[in-house]
Amino acid sequence: MDVNQHYRFAVPDRSYASLTKKDITRLAESFALSEGAVGKVNIIVSEMLTNLEKHTTQGGELLVKAIGKPIKGIEIISLDNGPGMIDPERMQEDGVSTFGSAGEGLGAIKRQSDVFDLYSLPQVGTVIVTRVYKSAKSIPAARRYDIGSVMVPKPKEVDCGDGYAVIHHERGAYVLALDGLGHGTHAQEAAQLAVKTFCENPIPDPALALQTIHNSIRRTRGAVGFA
Protein backbone atom coordinates (compact mmCIF):
# COMPACT_ATOMS: atom_id res chain seq x y z
CA MET A 1 0.00 0.00 0.00
CA ASP A 2 1.24 3.50 -0.82
CA VAL A 3 -0.98 6.51 -0.20
CA ASN A 4 1.50 9.37 -0.36
CA GLN A 5 0.56 12.43 -2.37
CA HIS A 6 2.83 13.67 -5.15
CA TYR A 7 4.75 16.93 -5.08
CA ARG A 8 4.03 18.83 -8.29
CA PHE A 9 6.69 20.81 -10.13
CA ALA A 10 5.32 22.82 -13.04
CA VAL A 11 7.90 23.45 -15.79
CA PRO A 12 6.28 25.85 -18.28
CA ASP A 13 9.65 26.79 -19.84
CA ARG A 14 13.42 26.27 -19.52
CA SER A 15 13.83 29.01 -16.89
CA TYR A 16 12.29 26.67 -14.31
CA ALA A 17 14.70 23.79 -14.96
CA SER A 18 17.56 24.67 -12.60
CA LEU A 19 15.33 25.46 -9.62
CA THR A 20 13.21 22.36 -10.24
CA LYS A 21 16.27 20.11 -10.26
CA LYS A 22 17.55 21.64 -6.99
CA ASP A 23 14.15 21.23 -5.30
CA ILE A 24 13.82 17.59 -6.34
CA THR A 25 17.40 16.86 -5.21
CA ARG A 26 16.59 18.28 -1.77
CA LEU A 27 13.43 16.21 -1.69
CA ALA A 28 15.37 13.02 -2.55
CA GLU A 29 17.88 13.81 0.20
CA SER A 30 15.03 14.34 2.68
CA PHE A 31 13.84 10.80 1.85
CA ALA A 32 17.25 9.57 3.11
CA LEU A 33 18.32 8.20 -0.26
CA SER A 34 22.00 7.33 -0.57
CA GLU A 35 24.43 9.59 -2.41
CA GLY A 36 24.44 7.13 -5.31
CA ALA A 37 20.63 7.05 -5.51
CA VAL A 38 20.46 10.86 -5.39
CA GLY A 39 22.99 10.92 -8.25
CA LYS A 40 20.68 8.69 -10.30
CA VAL A 41 17.76 11.00 -9.52
CA ASN A 42 19.79 13.99 -10.72
CA ILE A 43 20.50 12.32 -14.06
CA ILE A 44 16.87 11.25 -14.52
CA VAL A 45 15.50 14.71 -13.68
CA SER A 46 18.07 16.45 -15.92
CA GLU A 47 17.14 14.29 -18.90
CA MET A 48 13.41 14.71 -18.26
CA LEU A 49 13.79 18.50 -18.09
CA THR A 50 15.87 18.49 -21.27
CA ASN A 51 13.17 16.48 -23.06
CA LEU A 52 10.48 18.91 -21.92
CA GLU A 53 12.55 21.83 -23.22
CA LYS A 54 13.31 20.20 -26.58
CA HIS A 55 10.03 18.60 -27.48
CA THR A 56 7.26 20.76 -26.02
CA THR A 57 6.27 24.36 -26.65
CA GLN A 58 4.15 24.63 -23.52
CA GLY A 59 6.42 22.75 -21.10
CA GLY A 60 5.09 20.08 -18.78
CA GLU A 61 5.34 18.98 -15.18
CA LEU A 62 7.19 16.54 -12.93
CA LEU A 63 5.45 14.69 -10.12
CA VAL A 64 7.55 13.30 -7.26
CA LYS A 65 6.71 11.21 -4.20
CA ALA A 66 8.28 8.91 -1.65
CA ILE A 67 7.67 5.19 -2.08
CA GLY A 68 6.60 3.15 0.92
CA LYS A 69 6.29 3.68 4.65
CA PRO A 70 9.04 3.59 5.86
CA ILE A 71 10.42 5.18 2.71
CA LYS A 72 12.03 2.71 0.30
CA GLY A 73 12.65 4.96 -2.69
CA ILE A 74 11.39 7.76 -4.89
CA GLU A 75 8.98 7.94 -7.84
CA ILE A 76 9.33 10.57 -10.58
CA ILE A 77 6.73 11.09 -13.31
CA SER A 78 7.16 13.37 -16.32
CA LEU A 79 4.00 14.59 -18.08
CA ASP A 80 3.75 16.66 -21.23
CA ASN A 81 1.30 17.58 -23.99
CA GLY A 82 3.96 17.51 -26.69
CA PRO A 83 3.94 15.83 -30.10
CA GLY A 84 4.22 12.31 -28.68
CA MET A 85 6.13 9.42 -30.24
CA ILE A 86 5.16 7.23 -33.16
CA ASP A 87 7.53 4.43 -32.09
CA PRO A 88 8.29 4.73 -28.32
CA GLU A 89 10.30 1.48 -28.20
CA ARG A 90 12.69 2.66 -30.91
CA MET A 91 13.08 6.09 -29.32
CA GLN A 92 14.52 4.41 -26.21
CA GLU A 93 17.52 3.19 -28.22
CA ASP A 94 20.70 5.26 -27.94
CA GLY A 95 21.43 7.29 -31.05
CA VAL A 96 17.79 7.63 -32.13
CA SER A 97 16.58 11.23 -32.09
CA THR A 98 13.97 13.40 -33.80
CA PHE A 99 15.68 16.57 -32.58
CA GLY A 100 19.15 16.13 -34.05
CA SER A 101 20.73 15.49 -30.63
CA ALA A 102 22.80 12.50 -29.47
CA GLY A 103 19.59 10.59 -28.79
CA GLU A 104 20.67 9.23 -25.40
CA GLY A 105 18.10 10.90 -23.12
CA LEU A 106 15.49 8.17 -22.77
CA GLY A 107 18.19 5.50 -22.66
CA ALA A 108 19.93 7.34 -19.82
CA ILE A 109 16.67 7.66 -17.87
CA LYS A 110 15.97 3.95 -18.32
CA ARG A 111 19.48 2.90 -17.27
CA GLN A 112 19.38 4.97 -14.08
CA SER A 113 15.93 3.72 -13.06
CA ASP A 114 15.11 0.61 -11.05
CA VAL A 115 11.61 0.78 -12.57
CA PHE A 116 10.89 2.44 -15.91
CA ASP A 117 7.75 2.74 -18.00
CA LEU A 118 6.64 5.02 -20.81
CA TYR A 119 3.42 5.75 -22.65
CA SER A 120 3.22 8.09 -25.62
CA LEU A 121 0.55 8.93 -28.17
CA PRO A 122 1.17 11.08 -31.27
CA GLN A 123 -0.39 14.56 -31.01
CA VAL A 124 -1.38 13.87 -27.38
CA GLY A 125 1.79 13.69 -25.31
CA THR A 126 4.10 11.48 -23.29
CA VAL A 127 4.17 10.07 -19.76
CA ILE A 128 7.39 8.67 -18.26
CA VAL A 129 7.36 6.86 -14.93
CA THR A 130 10.57 6.03 -13.07
CA ARG A 131 11.43 4.71 -9.64
CA VAL A 132 14.76 4.65 -7.81
CA TYR A 133 15.04 2.51 -4.68
CA LYS A 134 17.41 2.77 -1.74
CA SER A 135 18.81 -0.69 -2.43
CA ALA A 136 18.13 -3.84 -4.43
CA LYS A 137 16.44 -5.31 -1.35
CA SER A 138 13.91 -2.46 -1.38
CA ILE A 139 12.62 -3.29 -4.87
CA PRO A 140 9.30 -5.14 -4.52
CA ALA A 141 8.79 -8.56 -6.08
CA ALA A 142 7.15 -8.54 -9.50
CA ARG A 143 3.38 -9.06 -9.62
CA ARG A 144 1.06 -10.09 -12.42
CA TYR A 145 -0.18 -6.50 -12.45
CA ASP A 146 0.74 -3.18 -10.87
CA ILE A 147 -1.65 -0.52 -9.60
CA GLY A 148 -0.58 3.06 -9.02
CA SER A 149 -2.07 6.45 -8.32
CA VAL A 150 -1.43 10.13 -8.88
CA MET A 151 -2.60 12.49 -6.15
CA VAL A 152 -1.72 16.17 -6.11
CA PRO A 153 -3.14 19.01 -4.00
CA LYS A 154 -5.49 21.57 -5.50
CA PRO A 155 -3.51 24.60 -6.76
CA LYS A 156 -2.52 26.91 -3.86
CA GLU A 157 -3.21 24.11 -1.34
CA VAL A 158 -0.56 22.10 0.50
CA ASP A 159 -2.66 19.10 1.53
CA CYS A 160 -4.32 16.73 -0.94
CA GLY A 161 -7.88 15.62 -0.19
CA ASP A 162 -7.69 12.45 -2.27
CA GLY A 163 -7.40 8.99 -0.76
CA TYR A 164 -6.21 5.74 -2.30
CA ALA A 165 -5.20 2.28 -1.13
CA VAL A 166 -4.67 -1.16 -2.62
CA ILE A 167 -4.32 -4.41 -0.69
CA HIS A 168 -2.98 -7.33 -2.72
CA HIS A 169 -4.00 -10.91 -2.04
CA GLU A 170 -3.62 -14.22 -3.82
CA ARG A 171 -6.80 -13.83 -5.92
CA GLY A 172 -6.46 -10.16 -6.82
CA ALA A 173 -6.68 -6.93 -4.88
CA TYR A 174 -8.95 -4.76 -2.75
CA VAL A 175 -8.91 -1.17 -4.03
CA LEU A 176 -10.18 2.07 -2.52
CA ALA A 177 -10.26 5.46 -4.26
CA LEU A 178 -12.02 8.49 -2.83
CA ASP A 179 -12.17 12.26 -2.61
CA GLY A 180 -12.57 14.10 0.69
CA LEU A 181 -15.28 16.74 0.39
CA GLY A 182 -13.94 20.19 -0.37
CA HIS A 183 -10.18 20.50 -0.41
CA GLY A 184 -7.20 21.15 1.87
CA THR A 185 -6.54 19.92 5.39
CA HIS A 186 -10.08 18.90 6.38
CA ALA A 187 -10.61 16.98 3.15
CA GLN A 188 -7.28 15.21 3.72
CA GLU A 189 -8.27 14.26 7.27
CA ALA A 190 -11.46 12.60 6.01
CA ALA A 191 -9.68 10.81 3.16
CA GLN A 192 -6.83 9.49 5.28
CA LEU A 193 -9.14 8.24 8.04
CA ALA A 194 -11.10 6.38 5.36
CA VAL A 195 -7.88 4.84 4.03
CA LYS A 196 -6.79 3.84 7.55
CA THR A 197 -10.15 2.15 8.20
CA PHE A 198 -10.02 0.32 4.86
CA CYS A 199 -6.48 -0.98 5.40
CA GLU A 200 -6.95 -2.07 9.00
CA ASN A 201 -10.07 -4.06 8.18
CA PRO A 202 -10.10 -5.22 4.52
CA ILE A 203 -13.61 -6.41 3.64
CA PRO A 204 -14.26 -8.39 0.43
CA ASP A 205 -17.81 -7.07 0.02
CA PRO A 206 -17.58 -3.53 -1.50
CA ALA A 207 -20.92 -2.35 -0.08
CA LEU A 208 -20.01 -3.49 3.45
CA ALA A 209 -16.55 -1.96 3.10
CA LEU A 210 -18.04 1.42 2.19
CA GLN A 211 -20.57 1.20 5.02
CA THR A 212 -17.75 0.55 7.48
CA ILE A 213 -15.80 3.52 6.14
CA HIS A 214 -18.94 5.69 6.25
CA ASN A 215 -19.42 4.93 9.94
CA SER A 216 -15.76 5.58 10.67
CA ILE A 217 -15.62 9.06 9.12
CA ARG A 218 -18.99 10.39 10.33
CA ARG A 219 -17.33 13.09 12.44
CA THR A 220 -15.22 14.36 9.54
CA ARG A 221 -16.21 16.41 6.52
CA GLY A 222 -16.95 13.17 4.64
CA ALA A 223 -15.89 11.77 1.28
CA VAL A 224 -17.15 10.17 -1.92
CA GLY A 225 -15.49 7.19 -3.55
CA PHE A 226 -15.60 3.52 -4.47
CA ALA A 227 -14.18 0.23 -3.22
Description:
This protein is an alpha+beta fold. The chain has six helices and eight strands. It has helices at residues 17-30, 35-55, 88-91, 105-112, 185-200, 206-216, and strands at 7-11, 60-67, 73-80, 115-121, 125-133, 162-169, 172-180, 223-226. The strands form two sheets. The protein has a five-stranded antiparallel β-sheet, covered by helices on one side. A three-stranded antiparallel β-sheet has the order 6-7-8, covered by helices on one side. Helix 1 (17-30) runs antiparallel to helix 2 (35-55), helix 2 (35-55) runs antiparallel to helix 4 and helix 5 crosses helix 6. The two termini are 15 Å apart. Residues 99-103 have low confidence and may be disordered.
User: What proportion of the residues form beta strands (DSSP E)?
Assistant: 25-35%
**Which class best fits the helix and strand makeup?**
alpha+beta
H/E series, N to C?
A: EHHEEHHEEEEHHE
Helix content: 25-40%
Uncertain stretches: 99-103
Tally of contiguous helical segments: 6
Query: Could you give the order of strands across the largest sheet?
Result: 1-2-3-5-4
Keywords for this entry:
alpha+beta; single chain; globular; 26% strand; 8 strands; five-stranded antiparallel β-sheet; 227 residues
Layout of strands and helices, then pairs:
Blueprint: E1 7-11, H1 17-30, H2 35-55, E2 60-67, E3 73-80, H3 88-91, H4 105-112, E4 115-121, E5 125-133, E6 162-169, E7 172-180, H5 185-200, H6 206-216, E8 223-226
Antiparallel strand pairs: 1-2, 2-3, 3-5, 4-5, 6-7, 7-8
Helix pairs in contact: 1-2, 2-4, 5-6
